[in-house]
Amino acid sequence: MTLADLPLDTPARVVGIDASHDVVHRLMEMGLVRGTSVTVRKIAPLGDPMELSVRGYALSIRRAEARRFTVELESAS
């Protein structure tokens, strides 16, 4: 599943990145890298952008950028 498909308030971990775009490189510099825990906190009324909780701060990204990040749900342990 991609980050764009992640339901609200569902914790997930980044497992893959399509880093073929400059904006994705900037997001990686901001901490959105493999192994990072991420949660979608808000989605704009028209669906774009979406606000993520990453490493203790809020990060807003477009859905097109979110589709470049593959995530897996974190276990509730």
Task: Describe this entry's structure for a reader.
The chain has 77 residues and is α+β, with helices and mostly antiparallel strands. It has one domain: SH3 type barrels, CATH 2.30.30. It is built from 2 helices and 5 strands. Strands 4-3-2-1-5 form a 5-stranded antiparallel β-sheet. The longest helix is centred in the N-terminal third of the chain and has 8 residues, at 22-29. It is globular and about 30 Å long. The model has no long low-confidence stretch (mean pLDDT 89).
Describe the largest sheet: 5 strands, antiparallel
- When the domains are counted, the total is 1
Number of strands: 5
> What is the CATH first-level class name?
Mainly Beta
The helix/strand order is: EHEEEHE
Estimate what percentage of residues fall within beta strands.
35-45%
- Named CATH topology: SH3 type barrels
CATH H-tier superfamily:
Ferrous iron transport protein A (FeoA)
Q: Runs with pLDDT <50, length 5+?
A: none
- Class of secondary structure makeup: alpha+beta
Arithmetic mean pLDDT: 89
